[in-house]
Design goal:
Elements lengths: L1 H24 L2 H29 L7 H23 L5 H16 L15 H35 L13 H34 L7 H22 L4 H25 L11
Helix pairs in contact: 1-2, 1-4, 2-3, 3-4, 3-5, 5-6, 5-8, 6-7, 6-8, 7-8
Amino acid sequence: MDLLIVLTIFCYLASSAGYFAFLFLQRPPMHRGGYGFLLAGFCIHTAALLAGFWTSGHIPVTNLYETLSVAAWALVAAFLGLHYRYKLNVLGVYTAPLAVFILLVAYNLPKTSVARPELLKSMWLVAHIVTIFLGDAALALAAGAGILYLLQESTIKRKSRGFFFKRLPSLELLDNTGYACIVSGFTLLTVGLVTGIVYAKSVWGRFWSWDPKEVWSAITWLFYAILLHERLAVGWRGRRAAWMSIIGFGVMLFTFLGVNFLLKGHHGQFTNW
């Protein structure tokens, strides 16, 4: 399994190089190379996760190493789905390096299980984990699209055809892509919360216990619910939506990792999700 992860990191690194070369030189073969290595890395990464599942008999999230590995896999999976729909090639400059960073951090963490394996075999929990991770990945991509939007907007406001002007897509495409990511991420997050509540009832005998992870998950959900409502009702778009997606990503990161390090709750029986 370690060999598969090393190969995955290599592919994601090669993908990062390809995407950065494409950003600077704007040559299609470089994008195809970056995308090809990312897809190859994703396939190897999927094989590594399946091997972990096959060996242990449960979804591999028993420690922070495994949790971050699944997070990196979900990020790439979300990007591949987004790329199929929107062809936003330049977002690979954000996705591939972030996946490399997450995996490199994960690879250097202890691999000893800190979870209770018997708690990980429920299909409700599997559905909860998969939807939450993919939802968080989509929201991370929304933040990436928001960053690119702000860069392009700044270039346009300066009325200068600088480095990013020709290399980044239109503001409309970036805004629409970010919105699609938020809608997808919010939907998956909602499903994840519902399945998590059902699972909590089966394990702890109650749907809600005001655990810090539950509270902050609800805060994250409400943040994006307000963002979507304001976009539809008031017309929040463009710069404001970009900033909100970046701020929301920060809230989501705190929910995903910060809560487990700074606050105590029963989610600690599993790992850092």
